[in-house]
Structure formats: C-alpha cells, structure tokens
Amino acid sequence: MHTIIRPQYTVVLNALRDKNVIKVITGIRRCGKSTLLEMQRDTLKKQGANTIYYNFEDADNVVLSDWQALYKAIIDQCKTEEMNYIFLDEVQMISGFERLVDALFVKKNTDIYITGSNAFLLSSGLATLLSGRYFEINVLPFSYKEYKESLPDATLNDYMQMGGMPGAVDMLSIGENYTLKYLNDIYNSVILQDVITRSNITNPQELFAVTRFAFDTIGSPLSPNSISKYLKNENNYVDSRLVFKLIEALKDAFILYESKRYDIKGKEQLRTISKFYLVDLGFRRMLLGKPKTSDAGHLLENIVYFELLRRGYKVWTGKYNSNEIDFVAQNEFGAMEYFQVAYTAKEESTLQIELAAFNVLKDNYRKVLLTTDELEFNNDGIEILNVEKWLLG
Fold it and tell me: CA-to-CA distance for 24 and 88, rounded, in angstroms?
C-alpha cells in the first residue's frame, strides 16, 4: 500500500513546529500515529534537522525503560546551538514518562512529539505537569476519502462493513479473512493492554458483554442503566456502576466515542443519555459478523459522526423539545450546523419525517440532510446532499 498523505494532521503538525507546546498524538492502536510521526521526522531530516526517535514498542528500547536513563540518552544526542526534534512513540510504556517529558520540555532548543494509545497519557500526571503546554491531535482511521485513495474501486458499503484501519485496508488485497484476523488481533491487543490491564478489569466476560452490546447499538441513545437492564434481561447482569466504568475504559482506549446530548432550545449540554460511536466499523464486522441491512442507517450515521470530527467540528446529539437532531456540529468559527442522516429518503413520507426535525428550529444555521440517494436539492433552505459526494468533498 502506498503512503497516504493525511493533510488534516500534517498541516497541524507543521503549523505547530517550533512552537512551545508538546505535540501529543493520540488514537487507537494501529490507526496511523507511528506513520504520522515517522513522516514528520523524515520531513525534518530531509531539511537537515537533528531528530531523535524512539519507538517503545520496539524490543531494542527495553533497556531504556527507566526514564532517567532515557533522559540521559536523549540529552547526549541533542545539539546545543540548534533545535532538537524529539519523537517518543507510545511513551506511556515508560515508567515515569510524565517526568521524562516534563524534564525534556524545560530544556532549551527542544521540540517534542509524543504518541499514546490510551487516554491515560493525558489523564495521568502529565496533563497536570504540562497544563497549558501541550496540544492534542487525535488521529482516526482512514476517512472514506483516504480509503478510496487506497482502494479506488471500493464502495461506500465496503467501507461501511470493513472500516478504514490502515493495516486492515492493506490486507483487503489478499482477502477479507486476513483483514478480519488482523482486526481481531488489534481488538485483542486493545482490550487486553488498554482496557483490562489499564483499568483493572477483573471479569473479562462482563467487559465482553458490554462491548458487544455497545458495538451492536451504535447511534442509539444509551445510559449505564439501560445497558444494565438489557443485559439483565439477557441473563447476563452487569451492575450499572460497572457498566459506566467499562464504557469509560472503552472510551479511554479510543475504541468508543461519546456524543453527548445538546439542548438546542436551552443552549446547553445535557448530562443524560448519550450516543456512542465505534471508531472503526471493521471491529463491528469482526465481532458481530456481517452487519444487518436494517442497521445501515446507524452505520452511515457512525461514518458521518467521525467525518465531522475529522473536519474539526465539535459534535453533539441534538434535542429540541421532543425532537431529535442526529448531529449539532459547531464549526471552527463557533457557528452551529445541523445534520440529519438517512440511508435513503426516496419515499416522500421518509423525507418529510427527516425534514420535520429541522422545521422546528427557529434559527438560521445551516441544515443538511445526508443520504445515499443520488438526488440533491434544496428544500426551503434545507440542503439535501448525497453523502458519498459529501464524504469525498
């Protein structure tokens, strides 16, 4: 597979170069963080810059597991009269990494880039030590546009089933079974290292039950209580407080993302039921089998949610009185935009149901209905767009 240039990340990294902040690159395992780091390092090396790189998943670096020894090894490679670019891949594997990063940051002429596959990286003492001195870049699997760049003949339905994990996309050339096996290996690694071990989960079966349910109900309003009640009805009871802990652990591992509810009328975020979206739909296919046709709307909604995040929006699930809006998205200028997602709205009755959610809104913010239908038009200020063209735009 040829290298996919990912400008939504490289532009940010280049803009932050030499700025007095630590670049913290986060995201689920194998989503492309290391490749992004290596690309940035290669660019700097070609310009003659002094770069220092460590990948802590590499067994050769095990001898440097003590942060003080690592600090000395890095400082010995720094040059006093020029900027030193320090790249630390999966730095959370180093005991005392917070002190290492802080010690390097206070040195003159250092520009630091670190990656991590768990929110523990910033929920640890690091965020406290570096308050106001870091910039987080959350990396996601391939977008549909990147997926098509790698597989020009693939369709949106292919992407909906197999997702966009870079290594999994590469595996598709030799067969779907290889892709699913690759995704299973990533999933097991995430569950074992970033969920069970990091969050001290004592009963993996409870975690499996909650994970399976969350994967099967993406885009549906959920709460710890509702999940607990459902599992109890299935003779697999998990206490609601434990459900909350397990969901938080899945979020910390960047496998689930939460879309909180936003009261459009009251202009405030609500602390009630949220929706959860899966970082890559390939994991759903791997765990649950072939997606059900009836789930196509929710799968498409999942894709749109992450595309909005990629484009820099802050995203919530909208509520206006009893009406639901799939997404309330705030753009970089602070303006709100509203999005509804429907797999198809060819039937007039379906179209009217989707548009009805917009009709109660009394402001002049942008309103968009995304469908797989080819027909595009404007309905009293509401844009009806083809979702595939929108994703590729």
Answer: 10
pLDDT digits (tens, 9 = 90+) for 59-97: 777 667 789 989 999 999 999 999 999 999 999 888 888
Superfamily of domain 7-138: P-loop containing nucleotide triphosphate hydrolases (3.40.50.300)
**Residues near 77 by beta carbon (within 8 Å), at least 6 away in sequence:** 50, 52, 84
Of 263, 260, 264, 256, the residue nearest 273 (C-alpha): 260
The answer to whether the beta carbons of residues 154 and 129 sit under 8 Å apart is no
pLDDT tens-digit profile of 282-333?
999 999 997 666 689 999 999 999 999 999 999 999 999 888 999 999 999 9
Exposed/middle/buried for 337, CB within 10 Å: 0-12, 13-18, 19+?
middle
CA distances from 263 to 272, 312, 320 (A): 11, 21, 6
The 8-class DSSP code of residue 218 comes to T
Query: How is residue 66 annotated by DSSP?
Result: B
Q: Domain extents for the chain?
A: 7-138
